[in-house]
Amino acid sequence: MLENALKKFNTMKTQNLKISRIPFSNMLKSEVSELAKKTIGIVQNHDPELLLLENILDKLEDLMPDVEKMSFSYGIDPKRQKIQTKRSLLMLTISGLKLEAKKLEKLGIDDDLQLIMSFINGNLRSLYKTKNDKELSQRVNGFLHAVESDQPLAEAMEAKGLMKHLDDIKIIFREYKIVLAKRVSLLAERPKYDTQLVINNIAEALENLLKTIEVFQMSNPLLDYTELIDELNQQARMYRRSINLRLANNRRRLEAKKEGETDIEGDADGSDGGDAPIEEDAPETTSHRVYVMEDDDHNDYDSGFEDEEEQLMVND
Question: What is the per-residue pLDDT for 15?
């Protein structure tokens, strides 16, 4: 029996059984949680006591309260959808002002129009390039404040018949800020925890478990870890396929959006929109530093007001 075990051990060494690592980059929070739960279940099904894995498995199981936190999703935020609607309406209203100013400019520019255009270009140009709602609000607010505080500018706007457009912008901007404030208030009521820390702890515990299995299958020739390793590798392949499919779909969505976008803002400014970089598939890695995407944030535009809504990244 010992001879057979040694022969099996030598075969395993020749095969050099390794556990494939799942690329944590671009994993959703819920996927990290699901991965931890499934890994625990797989190891438990292979008698961790017999395979001498109880102690290292306990360290991962100790993190289950945090794992459960990561699995919870708030779904698509209805307030964010309202923000997007109000934001689009605000952009269209501002474009109306800019287009009217452009038409006046074609008829001939004078001192009043030159003053107006300088403030429009300084505050409202290329608003579609703003990174988040916070930056957009600051720029629009800056223009409105300039009109209120600068008498020559206000008189020029009145003389050119542009105050109606300004009043429309004020109304929409007020509604936009109200929706933003309500969303921030609702987000503040959500339970807070350090997502970055929780993710790194889970990833580290998973990596330690996998490393222990790899070492033990070499140092314990009388124990058979082959089926366990095969099942963990199958799990890794499934997750990698799912992640890559999602990344491919995201790329197609970005390309379709760029191709089908008719940007009124660009027409008004006489400028083109910039292309956003497309992130490539994450390679297989053994790192437990994680780039996590929020499950409930399905919009391409970041509000800039809530840290937990932003993607978290810990660089190696």
Answer: 55
